[in-house]
Amino acid sequence: MNGLSGVINKVVQILDLLLPQGTEKEMSVTEISKALNMPIQSAHRLLSSLTEHGFVSQNEKTKRYKLGLSLMKYGFLMWDSLMLRTIARPFMEELSKRTKETVYLSVRENAEGIYIDSVDSPQVLKISEPIGLRLPLFIGASNRVILAFLKPELQKSLLDSFDWDDVPSLKPLSRAYIDQELTAIKQQGYAMTTNEATEGTTGIGVPIFSYENTVIGSLNVAGPSIRFSEESIGKYSSMARKYAALISNELGYRGRNLQ
């Protein structure tokens, strides 16, 4: 373990060293090894690996190194997540106040959905799932609505990757059932599930879109199923769609929110 942490430390030192100071920074392997008091062979080996994965790029003419596009990609992902939370928070608070139920904000991470923020219901009997909770994208309204609005090829790829014989849901879910659900969700503009992730719970999920016109997450209302009558579901889904559209617009989305 010490060997691995030592390598990680050296990698972080290299990336820190190449961090632009106002202007783009390029350094040779010799300059990097000297600055970090590192054997030139070690510096070269680490730079080769970083280049292979796009974290560092090498100028073909000068052979000097600079930060690569992969780091920018991860930076933008973190920025998007931070921006989403910041923009969504007041709308989440307003939605929770109006519905008196718990409101969650979810995003996709690979084949899973993850809660990144929540506003608790003011009522004694309420749903309170932990921030950071992860579930496969086809389980629960907050996740399924994201899956429904993904590009068809990505959606199919994710559905093909799931193990349908080992579904961590409270009720049986099949590929055929989920396929039908995704079609219905796209038509109605929201997802609604009961007793899938937590017993006695109903959730309503609505998609949030980014400036790139892609689904970036979901806004969700959840509470005890006994409070979610047909009338309440109609009212809450309408409110959630309104606030999700406002969040999408704040993020720069200019298309139709429910395609």
Automatic annotation (TrEMBL):
Domain IclR-ED, residue spans: 70-253
Origin: domain of life: Bacteria
Pfam families in the record: HTH_IclR (PF09339), IclR_C (PF01614)
Alphabetized InterPro entries for the sequence: ArsR-like_HTH (IPR011991), GAF-like_dom_sf (IPR029016), HTH_MetabolicPath_Reg (IPR050707), Tscrpt_reg_IclR_C (IPR014757), Tscrpt_reg_IclR_N (IPR005471), WH-like_DNA-bd_sf (IPR036388), WH_DNA-bd_sf (IPR036390)
Sequence ranges assigned to domain HTH iclR-type in this UniProt record: 5-69
SUPFAM superfamilies found in the cross-reference section: GAF domain-like (SSF55781), Winged helix' DNA-binding domain (SSF46785)
Xref: PROSITE patterns: HTH_ICLR (PS51077), ICLR_ED (PS51078)
Keywords, ordered alphabetically: DNA-binding, Transcription, Transcription regulation
Keyword ATP-binding: no
A biological-process GO annotation: negative regulation of DNA-templated transcription
Molecular function as annotated in GO: DNA binding; DNA-binding transcription factor activity
Keyword 4Fe-4S recorded: no
Protein name in the entry: IclR family transcriptional regulator
Taxon lineage: Bacteria, Bacillati, Bacillota, Bacilli, Bacillales
